[in-house]
Amino acid sequence: MRARTKRLWGVGVAAALLIGAVALATVALRQHADLFYTPGLIAEKGLPDAGKRVRVGGWVQEGSLVYGEGADMTFLIEDASARTVTVSYTGIVPDLFREGEGVVATGRFDEQGAFTAESILAKHDENYEPRELKKAGQATS
To answer: Which Gene Ontology terms describe the biological processes this protein takes part in (predicted)?
Structure first.
C-alpha cells in the first residue's frame, strides 16, 4: 500500500473510534442524567412522568418535618414561589439536613403525584464557619 492509502485508513479508523466514543458517552449520559425540578417549576409545567427519576430541590419548610416509624420521615420542600412538594424518605439523612436549610431529594413521583426520595443531599452556603469560631465570636460581641 502507498503512504497516502495508509494515512487515509488511519484517519478513517480514528474517525470511527471517535464517533463510537461520542455515541457511547451520549447514551451513558442520557441514561444517568437526573433532571432538577423546583416546586415552582413543577406547578408551572406539571408533574414529570410517573416512575421517572428526578431531583427536587429547595428548602425544607419550617415545621414540616414529621418522623414516622423507624427511619421514615416526611417533609415539605418549598422555593421562592411559595409552592411545596411533599417528600417521603426512609433512611439516614445527612448531618446538615434540618428545617429551613437547602435540600436536593432524588427519587420518583408515583401515579398519584406523591414523591418518594431515594437519597437526600443537604445543601449549605459557602460561608462555612466551625462551631468553635462561632462560639468564640459570640463570646466577644
So the answer is: cytochrome complex assembly; protein-heme linkage
